[in-house]
């Protein structure tokens, strides 16, 4: 079949052709690789045919809009994994090097389209698209590892953080969210449905992440491990299952991300496009005041005041817009990069208007989706930090609530001729030419700054996540702007007195190994620099535990209709099958064949009528199958796919059952996808 397509298809097209290619790249490229390496009927000529097919037909369709011009988040990640896998098959080192570079630098689709706690650009869109982005990046990372390239280690093991965040929220652990997004949208709240069970619950990517970090690197992934206890093993995920992995790979060279430092002097001033009267930029006490006139910066011929530095090569600028005068509702203050000081020059800007809206524009740059895509309003929320970054011929615009949680919301490409030097700085336009608008910026940093601004006590880390490891609690937090180190503190109860367990931590993660399984610990983190120490971060807690194992295997299932074949469907670790019971009450039983102390059980609803889900039940244990002890009682339960319940006083039993006393309203049937029994094992 592959050869038939390769010898007949001459075009693969469509507005979003990269989506189909990325979703199935590991199948068709993997299939080609298996045929090449394992089928005796495969010839060298067949390999040449497939390579030509990939190069001439499919690879152009994975990136139809030009260099680095990719759709947001999952769309771009799908394009990268398709290109990367085909490049590996084709021994195309030039394309593979480019894919690795783009995966590590493009902040709207790759590893940098994430924050310190593991949120991805699509995390607040919906869980399905978030998983699509995560799976593509993980699949690509795994393929690169096979080539000796380790991008798993990038950004403090960022793919582990992404996997743990995804698993945590979909295991229904209460989890706050930070504003985040990408070039499609900037999200200020989490309205996604947690408890997502599509795609086998994420079994492909989470199985790969578990192998990469837990088996290879010896790290802990508590929420991924918890989710793997019930995720089905299917025709996709089984290929990535392993018991051990001692393979090695080498991290690529450091990322070419431009650094920034504060600036207190050295800006030049330009009134562009007839802006009058002349503006000015002055610095005092940690803040820049920029006064500017002009008609605006949206149009082809912009008119504004620009306080700038000329920067050669990669560069970046950051600023927080503190205030701007109401010379016009559309008056704006922000950051700008431009190729020259002439009106209408190719340029990019990120700004805040008087109405508090975050705006962006990339005039005369090549932007995915065209100019309307670039001109959208990124956010109408209280986001007052803006950033621009140039890496090579790519300019990326960001917004942030705090100066560290940067979401790339605009990306454009400077086409030839690409200047070595561009102009970078602060921009103000009054939109009422003849009247100056006085705007104030704080926390201004730029590549090549003088570093002369006084230090300011950093804000507390905006979010902290604690995970229940085995004899350890892995912690991750969102970094604070200007912090040079962090202190981790622990308490025995919520709001109680704290003890410092680590200080001088320079990254945004730490693993507490001084814990006892079964004990709950509460954590906070503070940020420090030369000016002082922040308040505490929001707290999070975790109870380290020995990993639990689903012991409902190798035994005998039955139900109140004495239908073992039907009952087995609830214990096959496949949420696509169901125990389908005639009746609104009834029981589902499992005989382990030996005794076990079950400490937790799980109930997974089937993708059927909600009314058929169990509503009220008793979880019971027995040693003879006749006399039952009730271990847990639940009522008024509603569908949310997998639900997990702890047993308050576990004891040793051979038989366990779910005695359902009511469903959610169906008059005839009750259904359940999975019933799991979990016990601690050495």
TrEMBL record:
Domain F5/8 type C: 526-677
Domain Fibronectin type-III, first and last residues per copy: 457-548
Record field: transmembrane: none
Family matches, as InterPro entries: Chondroitin_lyas, FA58C, FN3_dom, FN3_sf, Galactose-bd-like_sf, Ig-like_fold
Source domain of life: Bacteria
PROSITE patterns registered for this protein in UniProt: FA58C_3, FN3
Pfam families cross-referenced by the UniProt entry: F5_F8_type_C
Protein name stated in the entry: F5/8 type C domain protein
Organism field: Collimonas pratensis
């Amino acid at each position: 079949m592959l050869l038939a397509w390769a010898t007949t298809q001459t075009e693969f097209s469509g507005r979003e052709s990269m989506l189909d290619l990325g979703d199935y790249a590991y199948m068709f490229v993997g299939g080609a690789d298996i045929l090449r390496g394992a089928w005796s009927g495969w010839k060298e000529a067949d390999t040449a045919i497939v390579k030509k097919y990939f190069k001439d037909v499919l690879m152009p369709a994975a990136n139809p809009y030009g260099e680095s011009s990719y759709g947001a988040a999952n769309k771009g990640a799908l394009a990268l994994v398709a290109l990367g896998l085909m490049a590996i098959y084709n021994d195309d080192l030039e394309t593979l090097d480019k894919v690795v570079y783009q995966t590590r630098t493009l902040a709207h689709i790759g590893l940098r389209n994430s924050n310190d706690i593991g949120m991805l650009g699509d995390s607040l869109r919906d869980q399905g698209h978030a998983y699509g982005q995560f799976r593509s990046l993980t699949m690509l990372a795994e393929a690169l590892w096979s080539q000796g390239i380790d991008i798993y280690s990038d950004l403090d093991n960022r793919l582990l953080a992404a996997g743990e965040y995804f698993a945590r929220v979909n295991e229904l652990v209460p989890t706050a969210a930070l504003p985040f997004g990408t070039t499609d949208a900037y999200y200020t709240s989490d309205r996604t449905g947690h408890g997502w069970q599509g795609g086998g619950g994420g079994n492909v990517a989470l199985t790969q992440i578990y192998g990469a970090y837990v088996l290879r690197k010896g790290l802990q992934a508590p929420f991924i491990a918890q989710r793997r206890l019930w995720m089905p093993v299917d025709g996709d995920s089984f290929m990535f299952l392993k018991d051990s992995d001692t393979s090695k790979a080498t991290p690529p060279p450091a990322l070419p991300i431009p650094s920034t430092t504060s600036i207190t002097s050295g800006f030049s001033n330009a009134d562009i496009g007839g802006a009058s009267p002349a503006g000015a930029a002055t610095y005092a006490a940690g803040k820049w005041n920029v006064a500017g006139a002009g008609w605006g910066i949206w149009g082809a011929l912009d008119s504004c005041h620009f306080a700038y530095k000329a920067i050669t090569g990669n560069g970046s600028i950051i600023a927080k817009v503190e205030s701007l005068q109401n010379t016009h509702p559309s008056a704006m203050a922000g950051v700008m990069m431009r190729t020259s000081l002439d009106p209408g020059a190719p340029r990019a800007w990120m700004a805040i208007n008087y109405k508090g809206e975050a705006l962006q524009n990339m005039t005369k740059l090549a932007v995915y989706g065209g100019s309307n895509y670039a001109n959208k309003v990124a956010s109408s929320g209280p986001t007052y930090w803006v950033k621009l970054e140039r890496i090579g011929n790519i300019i990326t615009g960001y917004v942030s609530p705090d100066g560290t949680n940067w979401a790339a919301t605009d990306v454009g490409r400077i086409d030839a001729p690409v200047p070595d030097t561009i102009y970078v700085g602060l921009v103000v336009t009054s939109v009422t030419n003849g009247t100056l608008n006085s705007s104030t910026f704080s926390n201004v940093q730029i590549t090549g700054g003088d570093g002369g601004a006084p230090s300011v006590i950093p804000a507390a880390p905006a979010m902290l996540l604690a995970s229940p490891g085995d004899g350890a609690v892995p912690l991750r937090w969102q970094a604070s702007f200007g912090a040079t180190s962090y202190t981790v503190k622990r308490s025995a109860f919520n709001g109680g007195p704290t003890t410092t367990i680590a200080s001088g931590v320079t990254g945004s993660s730490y693993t507490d190994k001084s814990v006892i399984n079964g004990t709950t610990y509460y954590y906070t983190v503070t940020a420090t620099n030369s000016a002082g120490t922040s308040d505490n971060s929001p707290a999070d807690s975790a109870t380290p535990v020995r990993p639990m194992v689903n012991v409902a295997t190798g035994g005998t299932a039955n139900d109140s209709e004495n239908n073992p074949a039907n009952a087995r469907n609830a214990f096959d670790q496949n949420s696509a099958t169901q125990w389908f019971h005639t009746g609104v009450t009834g029981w589902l039983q499992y005989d382990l064949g030996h005794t076990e102390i079950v400490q937790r059980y799980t109930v997974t609803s089937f993708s059927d009528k909600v009314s058929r889900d169990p509503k009220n039940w008793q979880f019971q244990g027995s040693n003879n199958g006749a006399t039952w002890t009730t271990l847990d009682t639940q009522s008024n339960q509603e569908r949310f796919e997998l639900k997990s319940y702890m047993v308050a006083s576990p004891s040793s039993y051979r038989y366990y059952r779910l005695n359902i006393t009511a469903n959610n309203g169906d008059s005839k049937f009750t259904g359940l996808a999975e019933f799991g029994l979990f016990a601690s094992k050495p």
